[in-house]
Design goal:
By secondary structure, this protein is of the alpha/beta class. The chain is built from 10 helices and 9 strands. Helix 4 links the parallel strand 3 and strand 4. Helix 5 packs across helix 10. The longest helix has 16 residues. The structure holds N-carbamoyl-L-aspartate. The site of N-carbamoyl-L-aspartate (NCD) has 10 residues, from helix 2 and helix 6. N-carbamoyl-L-aspartate binds next to helix 2 and helix 6.
Length: 305
């Protein structure tokens, strides 16, 4: 199927995912081979919310492909501050670039933007919605460390507002993965995501206690409580501090467990875990570059995935 944009992970088949991951592995093995491939290409970065990893790894990715970026800058310094609509912003920016990476606080923003422009739009996070390019690097990291077959994964923390969770869970329905969701009751998966997962035949279980599943996990994917999405700060205060892991927690886990986190972490993973062989989150963040190079290669060369 032709895909001009990357908006959600549900649009990706297993074959699409494997094609991107295979390309990323080739690039990882020999990044220099791609150095001049997209010498004329410009990637627009439109980030209406904070970002470190996503923005910088897309930037490094296009530069390693020989291209350049044009960056909207912060909302404060752009015409958004003057009241420009998202539709107008993206229609203007498409004239400056060959593809557009968009992060926005509203769910559905990337889908809407894609209706207004012809260049590929990559959803780099739409509110509590989706973040599919993060999912591709998550899957790449899982495949490199423990494999994607017969996978037992625990996804823990803010399952309600965590967009990386929603996209990862969707994508994992393409594989033989047992998905264990671990969270306080108030932060369980949104109904719409659970509905999509059931429709896709997901092997899904929900827990409030990590101890119930930790020993059987191949991957523990920890997430930050998404403070900025809470309508009520007191609700956040009640939950913050729960669902943290440290070196003691991991005593009950397999030695081969991969502990992942999309980052940034606040206090969900104690820094004492960083030196353990199970800590995989910095490697995961670094994988953003080859995976986003591969994704851009597909979208820029063929205009499709
Ligand atoms: C995530 C995001 O923005 O959704 N960050 C990222 O892109 N790696 C996770 C988060 O902010 O907690």
């Amino acid at each position: 199927m032709r895909q001009d944009h990357l908006i959600t992970a549900t649009q990706l088949s297993r074959a699409d995912i494997e094609a991107v991951l295979d390309r990323a592995a080739e690039i990882d093995a020999d990044p220099a081979a791609m150095a001049d491939r997209y010498r004329e290409a410009v990637l627009a970065l439109c980030f209406f919310e904070p970002s470190t990893r996503t923005k910088m790894s897309f930037e490094t990715a296009i530069k390693r492909l020989g291209g350049a970026t044009t960056d909207m800058g912060t909302v404060e310094s752009s015409s958004v501050k003057k009241g420009e609509s998202l539709a107008d912003t993206v229609r203007v920016v498409e004239g400056y670039a060959d593809a557009l990476v968009l992060r926005h606080p509203s769910e559905g923003a990337a889908k809407m933007a894609a209706e207004f422009v012809d260049v590929p739009v990559i959803n780099a996070g739409d509110g509590a919605g989706h973040h599919p390019s993060q999912t591709l690097l998550d899957l790449y990291t899982i495949r490199e460390n423990v494999g994607l077959d017969d996978l037992s994964i625990g996804i823990m923390g803010d399952l309600k507002y965590g967009r990386t969770v929603h996209s990862l869970a969707d994508a994992l329905t393409n594989f033989d993965a047992r998905q264990h969701f671990i969270s306080p009751e108030s932060l369980q998966l949104p109904r719409s995501v659970r509905f999509d997962l059931h429709n896709a035949g997901a092997q899904l279980r929900e827990h409030t206690d990590l101890d119930d599943v930790l020993p059987e996990l191949d991957v523990l994917y920890v997430t930050r409580i998404q403070r900025e999405r809470f309508p009520d700060e007191t609700e956040y205060e009640q939950i913050a501090g729960e669902y943290q892991i440290d070196a003691d927690t991991l005593e009950a886990a397999s030695d081969d467990l991969a502990v992942m986190h999309p980052l940034p972490r606040v206090d969900e993973i104690d820094p004492g875990v960083d030196a353990l062989p199970q800590a995989t989150y910095f490697e995961q963040a670094h994988n953003g570059v080859p995976v986003r190079m591969a994704l851009l290669d597909f979208l820029l060369s063929e205009g499709e995935l």
